[in-house]
Amino acid sequence: MNRSISYQTIATLIDTGGKKRSKFTSYLGLCLGVLLLLVAVQMFININQLIKDKNPRKNGFDYISITKNITNQNMGQDNRFTPADVAELKKQPFITDAAPLISNQFRVKASAGNIIPFSTDLFLEAIQNDFIDTLPPNFSWHQGQVMVPIIFSADYLEMYNVFAPAQDLPQMSAATISTVNINLECYAPYGFQTFKGNIVAISDRINSVLVPESFLTWANKHYGNAENVPAARVFIKTTDANSSELLNFLQEKDYRINKDKTKFGRVKQILQAIVTGLGSFAILVIILAMLLFSFYLQLMIARSKDNLQLLITLGYSPGWLSKTVSYKWIPVYGIIIGVALLVAQIAQFFFRHSFISAQDSLSPWLHGAVAGLALFLFVLCIVINYRLIKKLLYKL
Amino acid sequence: MNIVLKQVYPSFLDKELISHSQIWTKEVCFSASENIQIVAPSGSGKTSLIHFLYGLRNDYEGNIFFDKKNIKDFSPEDWAYYRQEKISIMFQDLRLFPQLNGAENIEIKRALQPFHNAGEMILMAKDLGIQNKLQQKTETCSYGEKQRIATVRALQQPFDFLFLDEPFSHLDEMNRQKSMQLLQEEANRRKAGLILADLKPIEFFKPHRTLYL
Prior knowledge:
The structure holds two protein chains of two kinds. By secondary structure, chain A is of the alpha+beta class. Chain A has eleven helices and eleven strands. A six-stranded mixed β-sheet of chain A has the order 4-3-7-8-6-9. In chain A, strands 5-2-10-1-11 form a five-stranded antiparallel β-sheet. In chain A, helix 10 runs antiparallel to helix 11. Chain A starts with 6 loop residues before the first helix and ends with a helix. The mean pLDDT of chain A is 84. Chain B is α/β, with parallel strands linked by helices. Chain B has one domain: 3-Layer(aba) Sandwich (Rossmann fold), CATH 3.40.50. The longest helix of chain B is centred in the C-terminal third of the chain and has 18 residues. The radius of gyration of chain B is 17 Å and the shape is globular. At the A-B interface, helix 8 and helix 9 of A face helix 3 and helix 4 of B.
C-alpha cells in the first residue's frame, strides 16, 4: 500500500458530523474522569507520604508493644500472652516478628548507694536482643557474674529528672547515668542476693528496665521458682504499624496498642477509603464517557457505511482504515488527558502550598506513577478506539 | 497470476440454466495476459461471476483459486492486497462516490497504489473526452460519462486481471472504440488479461477465448 496515503485522502468520505453534543459530552466526561482518577491516585500517594513521615522507623520496621485489654469483665483472669498467642502473632503476614517481654517473678529492690540516697522496688524485664534499639556489646550475663547490665528507658530517665530536684536528688544526663552504681537486691523466700547494676544504654523504643534475658530466666527460676512465665507484654516488629490489616487484627483480638504509634493509621485508613471511593467513581466516569464516545463512533461508522464499504471494495485495507480513522483522535485524546494532567498538577501544587507542615515531605510535582497512569489511559483510549473501529469495519 | 474455477456454480441459479454453460460446473483456467470474453443473456449470472472473482460474494458451490490459493480462505486483508496489486474491476453499476467529482473519484483509487502519475491520469480522461467532467460532481454526470470515469479509475493501479462488467453499455460507438483501445493498451502495458462480460460479443474486443455462460 502506498505509504504517503493519509487520512486526508478519505476525510471527505467519513461523516464525523452528526451528534456533536454527544461527542463533546464524552470528551468532557473523559477529561473529568481522568482528572478525578489522577487526583485520587496522587492523594493516595500524598497520604502515604505524609503518614509515613510521622513514624520514626529503624531499618524500615516499626516496633510496637501490645498488651491484652484489661476490662472490668476480664480483670480477674490471667491476661498474659501464652506461647500459643505469641506463635499466632508471629504467623500473621503483616507481622515480621514478635517477642514477649519477660518480667521478674520475684521482688527486686534497687538502691544507688550513698551518692544518690535513693531506694525503690523495681521491676525488671527482658526481651530477645534483636528487639532492642540500642544494644551495646556488653549486654550479656552468665551465671556467677555479679555485674548485671541494664538498658534504661529514655522516658523513665526523663521522669526521674522531673521528680529528682524535689527529692534533693541530682538530675542525670544519659551519659552520666551509666556511671551510677546500682545495687540490685533480688529477694527469694529464704533471703536476698545483691547484684551490681550498671546502665549500659538508654532505649527510646522499649519503656522498661531491661536486663539480659539469660539473667532474668535464671533469676526467675532461682528466686521466684518460675519457669516459662507468660508475658504481659509482647513486642511486635512490622513493616507498617499503620497497615489496616494489622490494626484490624489487633482490634479483632482485643489487644491494646500504643495509640501514638498507630493513630495516623486510622486517619490513613479513613482517608484512603475516601480516596479509593473517589478513584472508583472516577473509573466509572471514564467508562461512561468511553461508552458514550463509542456510541458516537458507531453512529459515525453507520453514517459512513456506504463510503467505507466502497473504499474496502476499491482495495482499501480494513486494518489501514481502522488505524487511520482511529489515529485521527490521537490529538483529541492527547489534549483531553494533557489538560487533566495539567489541572492535577495545579491541584497538587495548591495542596502542598496549603499544608505548611507538608511542604518538606511532599513534592510540588505529581508522582511518576500519576504521569505513568495518564500515559496508560492515553494509550488505553487509543487502543479501545482502534479495536472498536476495527471491529465495526470488519463487520461491513 | 492465474485463476482457476473448479465446478463453480451459483447456489441460487436453476440447474436447467447452468447445464449448457461453458463456465458453471466446469473446470476453467484464466491466465494473465489472456483476454477472455464471457457472453450471456441477462439473468444467467454474469455479474455474480464477476463478483465471485472479485471477492464480493461467496454464495457459490465449487472453488475458485488464485495461484492455487482458495479465495474462500482469504481474509479481508488478503482481499485488500489483491485489489491493490493483482485485480482491478469496472462494475456494471460503476460504484462511484456521488459526492466527489470525477478527479477525486479517480484519485482515491490512484492514491492507493499509483501506477500512473496525475498527469497521465488527466491525459486518459482527455482521451475519453471527459476532461471537463473531472471537476464536476459525479452525481450530476450522465451515465455514459460516469462509465468513462469508472474506466479511468480502474486503470490507476497495477493488475494481472481487469474484470469488466458490461463496461460500454451506455456509450456510443466512437466512445466504445476509444474506451476499448485504452483498456487494451493499459492491459498490454501490464501484460495483464481482460475478462469482459457482456450480453453479446463486443466488436472492438479481440479475445483469445469467448466463453458462453
